[in-house]
Amino acid sequence: MEIRTILQPECTACATPGSKKKVLQLISEIAAEQYSDLSAQEIFESLVAREKKGSTGIGNGIAIPHGRLDSIEQPIAVFIKCDEAIDFDAIDDKPVDLLFALIVPSDQCQQHLATLACIAEKLNDKQTLKQLRKSTDKTQLYQVIAQ
């Protein structure tokens, strides 16, 4: 799977959200702006519900927050680079500066797991991480993550 099939350039951002809650709200707002049939609140609630089960901070400054919605048919992705790392309760207890959020249809469990694995693999590449962290705007960020 290629990331560009689920991540649109408009859903990529460089930001300074300040907290876990604020970054999840930002993700929700960005997704809702691009997908007008969704509300930011329902996306946010889906992401928060998943975080309550355990942090999606996978370590090395990376989080992959994700949630499920009955009201969508295709996965939606949002990628954010934080200008300042935030506490995200990651498994290594280190702050997070790169977040790849994924909202998937509730009935696509296997595809969801495959997509998460693909994203985790991409973000596990040291060269990719270096380029992402050097990116200074959302255009650069998108080009690196989507290549």
From TrEMBL:
GO biological process: phosphoenolpyruvate-dependent sugar phosphotransferase system
GO MF annotation terms: protein kinase activator activity; protein-N(PI)-phosphohistidine-sugar phosphotransferase activity
Residue ranges annotated for the PTS EIIA type-2 domain, each copy included: 1-147
Coiled-coil regions, chain positions: none
Source species: Shewanella maritima
Protein name (Swiss-Prot/TrEMBL): PTS IIA-like nitrogen-regulatory protein PtsN
Highest rank taxon of the organism: Bacteria
InterPro entries: PTrfase/Anion_transptr (IPR016152), PTS_EIIA_type-2_dom (IPR002178), PTS_Nitro_regul (IPR006320), PTS_SugarTrans_NitroReg (IPR051541)
